[in-house]
Amino acid sequence: MSALIxxxxxxxxxxxxxxxxxxxxxxxxxxxxPVLATILVGDDPSSATYVQMKVNAxxxxxMGSRFISLPASTTTDxxxxxxxQLNNDTEVCGILLQHPVPEQIDExxxxxxxxxxxxxxxxTTQGFGLMAMGEPAFGSATPAGIMTLLKHYDVxxxxxxxxxxGRSPILGKPMAAMxxxxxxxxxxxxxxxxxxxxxxxxxxxxxxxxxxxxLIKADWIKxxxxxxxxxxxxxxxxxxEKTGLQERVAALxxxxxxxxxxxxxxxxxxxxxxxxxxxxxxxxxxxxx
Length: 289
Fold this sequence. Notes:
Elements: E1 4-5, H1 8-28, E2 35-41, H2 45-61, E3 64-70, H3 76-87, E4 94-97, H4 107-113, H5 125-132, H6 141-152, E5 161-165, H7 172-181, E6 185-189, H8 196-201, E7 205-208, E8 226-229, E9 251-252, H9 259-283
Helix pairs in contact: 1-9, 2-9, 3-4, 6-7, 6-9
């Protein structure tokens, strides 16, 4: 058996072509150019790289982007003021606050200050609650991208046992909720989980989201499982050890080229959807709740 490669890079490229056409159609119909505003606090080089990748993706699909760079000394109040300005800017359809922010900033307060209709990265507690309850909301970009990837490759989720390793509020927790909403039976594992290897061995779907290189060992994973690695670390390795997996599992994401491109794709897709909703609420204010 040779595993199906869940090629996020190829799928994102294909979806960008569709998004480009959709953005053009939206603007040709009188809509304003969708604009994603990205806030970067500090000068972390990895974060700056991620931001540039998002700016480039916006350009490829014909969307606008606005990059706001703030110094590492920025306070919570200063960041909240900037977010409030963007919330009230009618040209901005989506707001992304690049994670992580410097330690003196209350990141959760700043995430939650983003207007729900512009929360295209799915980071607000309100957005998470709506998504978890199956109500309309923008899901966190990485889990949303993973779900799109699994759907595209016809990976069966309903009735399967999914094990999510990691409980981040913007990755592990929303990933578990999305899988549960898709009728999977979900186990969430974390730093205090006991008998981790035994739990992973039960999984039909394994999602690595722990942020530690190759913490999840290949020999923990059963034959025929679907393996999704949301990690990326120096040397091009993920959270899951891949040795020998391609010959044993049903499907797996490459690192890089699997989950990462789908995260950005979900973000820009959400921004277009936000623009469409905002336009509809402006033209027909009684049609959108």
